[in-house]
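Q: C-alpha cells for this one, please.
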Amino acid sequence: MNAPQPRSLAGIATLTVAVIACAAFGIGFYVLPGTNPQLGLWQRMCRAAGFVTAPERDSEAAASGLTNVVVPRSALRMGTSDEIGRGATLALRCTACHGAQGLSGANAPNLAGQYPEVIYKELLDFQRGARTDAVMGAMVATLSDADMLDLAHYYAFLPRPEKDRTTSMAPALVRVGDPMRNIAPCISCHGAKDGKTGAPALEGEPNAYLVDQLNAFAHGSRKNDANSAMRNEARLLTAAEIGLVADHYAGASQ
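A: Here is the predicted structure, written as C-alpha cells:
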C-alpha cells in the first residue's frame, strides 16, 4: 500500500497565492471603498474599479437628504396646553427677531398662526444644516426634537392678523401661474384650501423677507425645498415678478 505523497511546493504556492488574492480582493473591493455604509457590494466593487454607478453629487445629495424630514403626527395637530406653554417659554429668546407675539418687526418671518409642521421642518433643517443662517444655526443647535415640536405648537397657536385669502384680485402668477413658461400658480402649494401640506402660509409675511427667500431659491443659495420645487419655480421668475408676488403676499393680511 502506497503512503500519501506530500503536497508539492507548486501546490502550496498556488494555494498561498489564491488566499492572498482573495484577501486583497476583499480589502480592495469591499472594505476600503465601504466608507459609505449605504453602498451595496456591487456599488463598492464598481467604485474600487474606478467606475461610478450613480452621478456624483455629494454636496447636493447631502443637502437634499437633510431636508427629507419625516414630520411626526404630533406636528400635524394643534398642541396641548402643556406643549403650548412649554413652547412659549422656549420662544422667549426668539422675540428679538420674531416678535413677542410671533409678528416680526425686523423683516424676519412672522410665525404667529403658521402651520406647525412648517415651523418644525424649518427648525430641523436649520439644525441639520439643510438651511443655513448664522443666527438660526446657533439658536437651534441645542434644541431637542420635543423642543422644536413645542415651539411649532406655540407659534401655530398664536393669533395672526385677519387674512384675506381671496385670490380674485391676485396677480396672475399667484392665481394661474404661467403655463407657457411652465410656472405653476403659487396657490397650488400655498393656497388656503388646496395648499400642499408642509408649504407655508405666506399671507402677511414681510415683503423684504419674501423677496430675499425667492431670490435665494432662484440663485440656489437656499436648497431645503423638497425635490427642488421652489428652486425650479423661482429661477424662472424675473426680478419684477418676484417683487410682484412679494407685494401681493405681504399685503394680503391688510
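A few notes: The two ends are 109 Å apart (CA to CA). DSSP finds 13 helices and no strands in the chain.
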